[in-house]
Amino acid sequence: MRNKANFLEDISKVVKSEVLEEVDFVEDAAHTLNNDLDNVGEFTVLDTFTSTGKNESFYFSKQNRPATDNPNSEVEDWFYEGRMK
After folding, report:
1. Mean pLDDT of successive 10-residue stretches along the chain, which has 85 residues
2. Which domain of life is it from (predicted)?
3. Domain chopping of the chain, boundaries
């Protein structure tokens, strides 16, 4: 996942603090996205866990990037695009 810092900043604005302490949202989002068979690229936190009282959705796009161990080849990765407001 790319743009993790932006994702964590956005998610911390809408998720209850006690949930933030217990859940690894980067891991949860990565797992959800890697099992996203229709490539929608949406990760939703249900209203039970948000401070806004509504479902909060975060959007990612799948793009190619240079491989870490070989910059001459590319790998697919999820890039954080932003939160639906």
Report:
1. 96 96 96 86 96 97 92 93 91
2. Bacteria
3. 4-83
